[in-house]
Specification:
The complex is a heterodimer of chains A (111) and B (114). Chain A is 0% helix and 58% strand. Chain A has 111 residues and is mainly beta. Chain A is globular. Classes of the chains: A mainly beta (111), B mainly beta (114). Chains A and B meet through β4, β5, β9 and β10 of A and β4, β5, β9 and β10 of B.
Chain lengths: 111, 114
């Protein structure tokens, strides 16, 4: 069963707008990561947030983590057409760094 | 530095045929993973290898076998392919023991079983 569930499943916005996607998970975690997947490609790591962190920034990306609600959000500011992709959250509870992926949010940014 | 490479990129099999998907990484990573990705299902872990010489089952191991040939290479074998194994397969690696748990992914193998 999937650990992470992204919401919404699909999102369509205009270029320049902000995009927010959410991830909920079921069990305690050590880390939560966000990955991007362009159509027909492998996943690319975007950002990692640890369970003792609440917010993290990387360029136009902002990630928040609320461990009490078992949820995370990814905000992409000033979106570009090149941001069109699927975005996945992934969680791990340590050990052999076994990572569990969610079902993804498909983002379309319209030029 | 090629990162994670996978061969083949595409493959069509008939039910009952066997094949091996190859994966190699040149980043001196310790851990390697095989996932399958199906529409609406995200990525599901098939097998992983925490270090050279060890392999463990993931969420969906039935119908698959793996070999960690050396530190660089981790292969996935389908002994008797079934239509339910039609999927996109991704290999990934990670530098265990480091500060981060970022996984590096290969480009994927698109497999169709008729």
């Amino acid at each position: 069963s999937q650990q992470g569930e992204e919401d919404p499943q699909a999102l369509s916005i205009q270029e320049g707008e902000n995009a927010t996607m959410n991830c909920s998970y079921k069990t305690s975690i050590n880390n939560l990561q966000w990955y991007r997947q362009n159509s027909g490609r492998g996943l690319v790591h975007l950002i990692l947030i640890r369970s003792n962190e609440r917010e993290k920034h990387s360029g136009r990306l902002r990630v928040t983590l609320d461990t009490s609600k078992k949820s995370s959000s990814l905000l992409i500011t000033a979106s570009r057409a090149a941001d069109t992709a699927s975005y996945f959250c992934a969680t791990d509870a340590g050990g052999y760094q076994k990572v569990t992926f969610g079902t993804g949010t498909k983002l379309q940014v319209i030029p | 530095n090629a990162g994670v490479t996978q061969t083949p990129k595409f493959q069509v099999l008939k039910t009952g045929q066997s094949m091996t998907l190859q994966c190699a990484q040149d980043m001196n990573h310790n851990s390697m993973y095989w996932y399958r990705q199906d529409p609406g299902m995200g990525l599901r872990l098939i097998y992983y290898s925490a270090s050279e010489g060890t392999t463990d089952k993931g969420e969906v191991p039935n119908g698959y076998n793996v070999s960690r040939l050396n530190k660089r290479e981790f292969s996935l074998r389908l002994e008797s392919a079934a239509p339910s194994q039609t999927s996109v397969y991704f290999c990934a690696s990670i530098l265990s023991g480091g500060t981060y748990n970022e996984q590096f992914f290969g480009p994927g193998t698109r497999l169709t079983v008729l």
